Amino acid sequence: MQSWIPLVPDSASTFSWKVDALYFYLSGVTLFFALLISAVLIFFVIRYRRRTPYEIPRPIAGSHKLETLWTIIPFVIAMTMFGWGARIYFEQYKPPSNAIEVYVVGKQWMWKLQHATGQREINQLHVPVGRKIKLIMTSEDVIHDFFVPAFRTKADVVPGKYTTLWFEATTPGTYHLFCAEYCGMNHSGMIGSIIVMEPREFDNWLSGNTGNTTPAAAGQQLYQTLGCASCHGANGEGGRGPTLAGVFGKTTQLQTGESVRVDEKYIRESILNPQAQIVAGFGPIMPTFQGQVSEDQLVQIVAFIKSLPAGGQTQAPAPATSPTPNAK
Ligand code: CUA
């Protein structure tokens, strides 16, 4: 849906009108004061112009009343901008818990995406309309930035950590995806599209793309081949490392007495730099897997650990964490 206002991109997410309204408010305030100040300036230039060559102006003292006024009014206006902006910011950067998750890995110069149901895409993302979509993103090399103008949202994609972005598309169609952080020679070519489909069409698309292993299942494979199970078995067998089942999203006690939330970032760090944050009651015996697993594989291991139910079997087949039925 092309906007009727020139230079404003398509509008296709639940954020769009909120961001636009704030933008129009900012533009309106700016325009109002630009015009007011210009008008007053022109008026004063004419009204108080020098009329005779040796004219000496009447001295004036400061006015506390005036100064207070022109401090308080801009302050109040600036705070409305801050408050309004902060509200939209918090809404945009706090992903809802009931969203469909998609993993994103950025690299020079392409976007690699994988759905929780296993389908992989390059520089393209198919999503259903009217559903909340959460992207869990990381980079293989430098900082990129996932930017969808039509959704009025973007977030940096940073090597060494996971960032998230969420949106809910409101109109089916194809929308631009840009990289919005200069990342080297072909930065301008790091583009793609988001294809928003009707839910039924999306389900068809999804079921037509089977034959892919889900990230969780691929993660379980890695869990076996890397030998994680010998220390991190279900219900603590192996016994040398903490149980992995059901830990995701919980808070765990560290050796240092601190506690930490087990999220994507914590799991990633524990694989690459196991000595950094050791769980209380365990020794610093885990070797690093730095250089042995790629970002894609780390994402898969994280997906696997996430999929393990509390008190469940680490060895059991990984449940496909499919938010939409993947029929066939
Ligand atoms: Cu990736 Cu710019």
In short, what is this structure?
With 328 residues, the protein is α+β, with helices and mostly antiparallel strands. 32% of the residues lie in helices and 20% in strands. Bound molecules: dinuclear copper ion.
Highlighted features:
6 helices, 5-stranded mixed beta sheet, 12 strands, binds dinuclear copper ion
Explain this structure to me?
With 328 residues, the chain is an alpha+beta fold. The strands form three sheets. Strands 3-2-1-5-8 form a five-stranded mixed beta sheet, covered by helices on one side. Helix 1 packs antiparallel against helix 2 and helix 4 crosses helix 6. The chain is elongated, with a radius of gyration of 27 Å. It starts with 15 loop residues before the first helix and ends in a 21-residue tail after the last helix. The C terminus is likely disordered. The structure holds dinuclear copper ion.
Number of strands: 12
Write out the distinct hetero groups bound to the structure.
dinuclear copper ion
Q: What is the 3D form? A: elongated
SSE order: HHEEEEEEEEEEHHEEHH
Which spans have pLDDT < 50 for at least 5 consecutive residues?
314-328
Provide the spatial order of strands within the biggest beta sheet: 3-2-1-5-8
Helix fraction? 25-40%
Q: What portion of residues belong to β-strands?
A: 15-25%
Summarize model confidence as the mean pLDDT.
84
- How many strands, which pairing sense, and closed or not: the largest β-sheet? 5 strands, mixed
Number of helices: 6
Class by alpha and beta content: alpha+beta
Task: Report Rg.
Answer: 27 Å
Distance between the termini: 34 Å
